[in-house]
Structure formats: structure tokens, C-alpha cells
Amino acid sequence: MKALRLFLLDARADTKLGKDFQIGNGNILKEEEIQVIDSRFITKEEAQSVCPEGIRLIFTNVAVTEYNLSILNSEENKTLSLASDVFVGCHNAEQQNFVRQKLHKMRADNTGRLPYELILVLNRPYMVTNNIDVSDG
Predict the structure, then answer these.
(1) What gap in Å lies between CA 137 and CA 132, rounded to an integer?
(2) The pTM of the whole model exceeds 0.85
(3) Where in 19-136 does DSSP place strands (E)?
(4) Would the N or C end of the chain have less CB density within 10 A of its end CB?
(5) Angle at 53 between CA 13 and CA 39, to 5 degrees
(6) How far is it, in rounded angstroms, from Cα 101 to Cα 66?
């Protein structure tokens, strides 16, 4: 049986990794510097045609959900994967049922953004996101 590997993002890259991963030094950018940065952005359509398997940095969880659904809707062969929960520390079946019911009522943002069910497509990445609570979003 294969397992899902979860990599939690616990800090913003620009604060944890230092200056090498920041844009600028805090000073106001010159017009030509802004143009260089802006030239790196492309439309969704361009990304899909030029590099359909590329990594996408998506601004909001809602937009990630829309992207995931567009991938799922474009494929015919889908697999439904249900979570296989393991409970440790329950002393009897009644306790285990109680804990299971509480878990299944939890929202995904309280479970590390791991949903109870995932619809998967072979050879297509699935994005699981969780925004970090920082002042600039």
C-alpha cells in the first residue's frame, strides 16, 4: 500500500530562506526593474500551452480549488481515494467511534488541509494548500 506524503509549509520562503529568495531589498523599484519582474508573468492559457506540467504558484485557496477542478474535469479516468484513519489511544470501540465522528465533522483547515476524500487522476499533481496567517496574505 502506498501512503500519501504530507509536507507542511510552516513559514514563508522569503522570511525563512533569507535574502536570496526575496524580490528587492525593500527600496522602491525602478521602472525597468518592475518591467523585468512583470515580464516573468504569463496568462493561464500561455502556461497551459507552453508548460502544462509546470509548477503553478496560485494566490488563493479558492483559485487552487478552481485549478484542481479544471484538471479533474478534463480527465476521464478518475480514482476516489478515501482517508484510512488510524486512531491511537482509544481503549474501546465506543471511544474510537466517538473520535472518528469528531474527526469526520472537522473542516479541512483543522486537519492540515487533508480532506477525507480525494479525487485523483493518474500522472496529474493535486494541490493541497493552506495559507499561512501573515499580514500581507
Answers:
(1) 7
(2) no
(3) 79-82, 117-120
(4) N
(5) 60
(6) 29
